[in-house]
Each structure stands twice: as structure tokens, then as C-alpha cells.
């Protein structure tokens, strides 16, 4: 009887430890329907200014891959093939799904990945509308359309640009305290120039202090000489 009780206690303790450890774990399931991935190794790599760290890796098998590990903090990394970035991924506790399809590449299932890729879908939709209008303007110019119609197309292009900037600023205002906002800022400020784009300056001017102290943001503001004071 005593041994049975001890066995029960040990079993319960083991289950509790497993549950505690799993609460700080990430799990990633991946689906690949793009050529050139079968049998290849994929890695999660964190690129920092002075350090590059490989977090996890696996091999694509029959169009599937899986990674698991600890997620004590939320980290922005990149899914890479041959150490070349494919798409950004937030490592955070929970179960995420990565889809590498011919028509899209997305990550979903956890808070930061859902936030980031929801933003990205909206931006891609606006960018596509801008590209369609831009191509229409080029076609009209080649056909010798009258200046009034060309002005209307140009006005439409400006409206799309304004819509995109407002969407970006609205997202940032709602999510400055989320790691996903840093990922969006990284995407917007990726150009090596020391000149601050007007949109990036607008984001920085409206940002709370805790956003400005994020390592990437702080490094950027020091590099370009931004000072809000």
C-alpha cells in the first residue's frame, strides 16, 4: 500500500513538472508545398547586431517539419534555409503553424505571429492595389491618355499611400507594447540610410519611452541620430 501511494505521488509530481515545463515551451508545425525544400534543413536563427544564434533546426520530410523547445522569452527570429532568411517567426510559448506555400508564406497560432502576419496581410493588400494603379498609369501614359485622367490616377495613388501610412500608424499606436510592433518597425527601417523616413519619424515621435528603449529601436535611433527631446 505504501509503495502504491509513493508511486502515485511520484506520478503526480512528474505530471506537474511536465505541465510546468510545457507552459514555457514553443511548438512549431510546418507545411511545405514549395519546390526545393524536401530533405533540406531549416533553422530558426536570431540575427542580432553583434551576434547570430541558431535556436533550432530540423529536416523537411514529406513536406512537413516540426520544432519544439523552451520559450522563456519572446524572440523574433527567422526561419532560414542554408542560413538564408525565408520569413520572420516569433518564438513564444504556444503552438504555431508555418505554411510555405507557392501563394503565401505565413506563421499563425500564437499572439505575436498572428499580430505580425495580420499586419503583413493588410499591407500586402494595399501594396497590391498601389501596384495595380501604378501599372494602369504606365499603360495610360503609353496610350497617350489625356492629362485629366492621368491626374485622377495620380490622386488615387496618393490616396493609397496615405491609407497605407494611416494603417501602419494605427497598428503601431495599438501595439507599441507588443513585440510584434518591433518587428514591423524593423521592416520599415531596414534601409541602411542615415536619413529618417517621414513615416519612421512619425512612429518614433508618437512612441512611448518603453518602445524607444527596445534594443533594435534604441540602436536605430542612435545610428541615425534621432532625439525626440
Description:
With 229 residues, the chain is α+β, with helices and mostly antiparallel strands. It folds into 2 domains: 24-109, Immunoglobulin-like, CATH 2.60.40; 114-224. Helix content is 51%, strand content 25%. It contains 7 helices and 8 strands, in the order αββββββββαααααα. The chain has helices spanning 2-22, 111-143, 147-175, 179-188, 198-206, 209-212, 215-224; strands at residues 25-32, 41-48, 51-59, 64-70, 75-81, 84-91, 94-100, 105-108. The strands form 2 sheets. A 4-stranded mixed beta sheet has the order 4-1-7-8. Strands 3-2-5-6 form a 4-stranded antiparallel beta sheet. A hairpin with a 2-residue loop joins β2 and β3. α2 runs antiparallel to α3, α2 packs parallel to α4 (179-188) and α3 packs parallel to α5 (198-206). The longest helix is centred in the middle third of the chain and has 33 residues, at 111-143. It is globular and about 60 Å long.
Which features does this protein show?
about 230 residues; globular; alpha+beta; 2 domains; four-stranded antiparallel beta sheet; Immunoglobulin-like; about 50% helix; 7 helices; four-stranded mixed beta sheet
Architecture blueprint of SSEs:
Blueprint: H1 2-22, E1 25-32, E2 41-48, E3 51-59, E4 64-70, E5 75-81, E6 84-91, E7 94-100, E8 105-108, H2 111-143, H3 147-175, H4 179-188, H5 198-206, H6 209-212, H7 215-224
Parallel strand pairs: 1-7
Antiparallel strand pairs: 1-4, 2-3, 2-5, 5-6, 7-8
Amino acid at each position: 500500500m505504501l509503495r502504491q501511494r509513493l508511486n502515485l505521488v511520484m506520478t503526480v509530481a512528474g505530471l506537474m513538472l511536465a505541465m510546468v515545463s510545457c507552459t514555457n515551451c514553443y511548438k512549431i508545425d510546418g507545411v511545405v508545398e514549395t519546390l526545393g525544400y524536401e530533405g533540406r534543413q531549416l533553422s530558426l536563427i536570431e540575427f542580432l547586431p553583434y551576434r547570430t544564434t541558431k535556436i533550432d533546426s530540423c529536416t523537411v520530410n514529406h513536406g512537413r517539419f516540426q520544432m519544439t523547445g523552451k520559450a522563456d522569452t519572446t524572440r523574433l527570429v527567422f526561419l532560414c534555409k542554408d542560413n538564408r532568411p525565408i520569413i520572420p517567426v516569433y518564438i513564444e510559448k504556444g503552438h504555431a503553424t508555418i505554411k510555405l506555400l507557392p501563394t503565401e508564406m505565413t506563421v499563425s497560432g500564437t499572439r505575436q505571429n498572428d499580430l505580425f502576419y495580420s499586419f503583413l496581410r493588410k499591407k500586402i493588400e494595399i501594396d497590391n492595389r498601389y501596384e495595380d494603379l501604378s501599372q494602369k498609369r504606365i499603360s495610360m501614359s503609353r496610350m497617350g491618355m489625356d492629362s485629366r485622367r492621368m491626374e485622377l490616377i495620380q490622386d488615387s495613388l496618393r490616396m493609397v499611400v496615405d491609407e497605407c501610412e494611416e494603417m501602419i500608424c494605427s497598428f503601431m499606436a495599438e501595439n507599441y507594447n507588443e513585440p510584434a510592433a518591433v518587428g514591423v518597425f524593423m521592416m520599415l527601417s531596414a534601409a541602411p540610410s542615415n536619413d529618417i523616413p517621414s513615416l519612421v519619424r512619425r512612429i518614433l515621435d508618437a512612441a512611448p519611452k518603453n518602445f524607444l528603449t527596445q534594443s533594435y529601436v534604441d540602436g536605430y535611433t542612435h545610428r541615425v541620430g534621432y532625439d525626440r527631446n
